[in-house]
Automatic annotation (TrEMBL):
GO terms for molecular function: amino acid binding; carboxyl- or carbamoyltransferase activity. It comes from marine sediment metagenome. PANTHER family: ASPARTATE CARBAMOYLTRANSFERASE, ORNITHINE CARBAMOYLTRANSFERASE, MITOCHONDRIAL. This is Aspartate/ornithine carbamoyltransferase Asp/Orn-binding domain-containing protein. InterPro entries: Asp/Orn_carbamoylTrfase, Asp/Orn_carbamoylTrfase_sf, Asp_carbamoyltransf_Asp/Orn-bd. One of its GO terms (biological process) is 'de novo' UMP biosynthetic process. Residues 3-67 form the Aspartate/ornithine carbamoyltransferase Asp/Orn-binding domain. Keywords: Transferase.
Amino acid sequence: IPEDYEKVKGVYVINRAMIEKAKKGITILHPLPRVDEISTEVDDYEGAAYFRQAHNGLYVRMALLALITGRV
């Protein structure tokens, strides 16, 4: 619901300080676009997997479309 999103927009942001307090070796996933939920300072964190997630999701969607349309 858009109204609910507006209420919490910007309240929950993953940033470098939050990651440093978290358990070692965490993985951060996000479907993207990140809007304001993940700070850009997190992009170079080794556990930031959201760009790989988005990249791999592209190929999953392509495969599903090929399967659905009978091209496979």
